[in-house]
Specification:
Layout lengths: L1 E3 L12 H9 L2 E4 L2 H10 L6 E3 L5 H13 L4 E4 L12 H9 L4 E3 L6 H8 L6 E6 L6 H9 L4 E6 L4 H12 L4 E6 L7 E6 H10 L6 E5 L6
Parallel strand pairs: 1-4, 1-5, 2-3, 2-4, 6-7
Antiparallel strand pairs: 7-10, 8-9, 8-10
The structure holds S-adenosylmethionine (SAM).
Length: 223
């Protein structure tokens, strides 16, 4: 059995009771960054041994992990924060494990996109998640496509690209399109900017973005 266990995106109290119990019970924890996850394990007095499993070694490790599970081990995968497989390693392991007939279970738990969407005030009945935009090539094309989407769109952005991204959005989304820029969910300096694309651009040009961000954009009405 492989468990994918969501971990807090800021506030350590957001770890679920079942997540803690399973992290104590499994034979091995695969962690994106063992040093980051050690803090969580220490906090909850979890003594299970850990190995690293990240985007640079997952292709090499996946077959070995599946072999261990087929020999009877129970393994948990965690990422630095939130739900594994959501803009984090996880997909490859799940895909390969299912091919080999291994059982996979992802626990419900912390992820940044859902609270950002729900507290944005934009329609949350139907939405699209875009993960991160392409870093260089393909950004404009992706933004153009996103601007034509009629459902609410949620995506992740790093702080040093917020101003650039809002500036690139303007010609496609127009100055009036509503959005929410949700910052530092569940942390001390959590804040939300709600307004138009243009207002957000002016705001973040004057207030240097710091921390972690989710952008939630209203869908187009012209469809
Ligand atoms: N697996 C995570 C999840 O389930 O949300 C996402 C990991 S991805 C590498 C990291 C990105 O998620 C950040 O750059 C940011 O866009 C978003 N994020 C993570 N924690 C956040 C938080 N506390 N507040 C706002 N955004 C957050």
């Amino acid at each position: 059995m492989i468990y994918l266990i969501p971990t807090p995106i800021g506030n350590l109290e957001d770890m679920t009771l079942r997540g803690i119990r399973l992290l104590k019970e499994v034979d091995l924890i695969l962690a994106e960054d063992t040093r980051t996850s050690q803090k969580l394990l220490n906090h909850y007095e979890i003594k299970t041994s850990m190995q690293s499993f990240h985007m640079h070694n997952e292709h090499k490790k996946v077959a070995q992990v599946i072999q261990e599970v087929l020999r009877g081990k129970t393994i948990a995968l965690i990422s630095d924060a939130g739900t594994p497989g959501i803009s984090d390693p996880g997909y490859l392991l799940v895909h390969e494990a299912l091919k080999e007939g291994v059982k996979v279970e992802c626990l419900p738990g912390p992820t940044a996109l859902i609270p950002a969407l729900v507290q944005s005030g934009l329609p949350s009945d139907r939405f699209v998640f875009e993960g991160f935009l392409p870093p260089k090539k393909g950004r404009q094309g992706r933004l153009k496509q996103m601007a034509e989407e009629s459902r609410t769109t949620v995506f992740y952005e790093s702080p040093h690209k917020i101003v650039k991204t809002l500036g690139q959005m303007l010609p496609y989304f127009g100055s009036e399109r509503k959005l929410a820029v949700v910052r530092e969910l569940s942390k001390k300096f959590e804040s939300n900017f709600r307004g138009s694309v243009e207002e957000a651009l002016h705001f973040f040009e004057e207030h240097t973005p710091k921390g972690e961000f989710v952008i939630v954009v209203e869908g187009t009405k012209s469809k």
